[in-house]
Structure formats: C-alpha cells, structure tokens
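User: My instructor asked us to take a sequence, write out its structure as tokens, and then describe one feature of it. I'm not sure where to start. Here is the sequence I was given:
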Amino acid sequence: MIVLMAGLPGTGKTTLARALAQRTNGRVLSKDEFRHAIFLPEEIEYSSRQDDFCLQFMIETAGYLLSQSPTKFVFLDGRPFSRRYQIENVLTAAASLHHPWRILECICTEETARRRLEGDASNAKHPACNRDFQLYLRVKQHFEGISHAKTVIDTDRSPEECVAQALNALTN
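Assistant: Let's start with the prediction itself. The structure tokens for your sequence are:
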C-alpha cells in the first residue's frame, strides 16, 4: 500500500511515518532525503519543479519496493500534498501499479507547528533548509483541501493515540 503523509510543515508527518514504518515493517521515502541524494547542495532549489521530480522518483521507488520485497507499506513523506495535482499524480501511479493507497493528513495547532519547526531549526534536525514557520504560513495560505478519502490525525494527541488511529486506517 502507498500511504501519502499529507499536512502542513511541522504537523508531525515524518514522526508518524517513522513510527508506522517500524510497526508495519514499512518504508519511509522522504522527498528531502531523495533531493539531497540526487542534487548537489548548489543545485537544490526547493522549487515545485524539483519537488515534483523528486516525488516521481519516490513513486517509482515505491512501486519497485512493493513488487520486490516483503514491504507492505510505503510512506511518502516530505511533501505536504497541498495541491490536488500532487495527490492525483500519486493516486494515478498507485492505480497503474495495482497498489491500494491511503491518505493520512496530519494536523495540529499553529502554535504546536511553530514550536516544532523552531525546535528542528535550532537543532538542525531537518534536511530541508527552507523549513520554517514562514513556509508553514505560505503553504497554509495556498493549501487545497483534500477531496479524496483520508484519515485526519491530530498530532497534538499522544504519539500512541496517533499511531493507533493511523494503523486502524491502514488496516481497515
């Protein structure tokens, strides 16, 4: 199954994806890690075009992993999936690969997102240099609502509750 981790920056997509991958023997494919593996630092531009390129590579990798290994879940992370075309591209690819999909949309309060983003920046924990609260506000301003079936997970709740809700969504 291909799982889209959707939501604004700082809403806990990566943390949840990693916890789910551990519990399901799944794999997390991160757009930011793909970007840094493909491009030299001076080539990184954080553009939609480069993001789309990395996502296409992630989709190809997901298809390969799902067809060649015991992996049951591939979590696509590192992109908010804030535009409908981004989701449509993944769902079209999942259909052509004959794999089911799920969308997990992570949400939290704006203050929680701000705190997480500032903490990641001060610890240099995240590979994306453009990830800050201003990015959160820009993405939020242009976020197109997700019209497909999805499970909304409020990551202000405990990690255990979030993982339990997500696992339920993935197995039902």
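For the description part of your assignment, you could build on this observation: The CA atoms of residues 17 and 75 lie 6 Å apart. Try explaining in your own words what that tells you about the chain.
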